[in-house]
Write a structure and sequence with these properties.
mainly alpha, 82% helix
């Protein structure tokens, strides 16, 4: 895992995933636990933010994993 954290693609993808989807997941969790005044909130902006950042972040994470594994193969071979 430490070698993945050295990959900029992986780190940027992970940060994008956390910052893009995290707020929506926090609102969903807070509403589920009953800590929010509305049991069925409609966080449109947070949904749009998550929708726009989810797939690019997964792509960046996948590229980072692929590059780390490729560099390992080249180092061993």
């Amino acid at each position: 895992m430490n070698s993945y954290l050295r990959s900029r693609f992986f780190v940027v993808g992970l940060i994008t995933l956390i910052l893009g989807s995290g707020p929506l997941l926090i609102v969903i969790l807070i509403a589920t636990l009953g800590l929010y005044h509305d049991p069925n909130p409609n966080p449109v902006f947070l949904g749009i933010l998550a929708g726009l950042t989810f797939w690019p972040s997964l792509l960046l994470i996948a590229v980072g994993v692929w590059r780390v594994r490729r560099s390992r193969e080249r180092g061993l071979g």
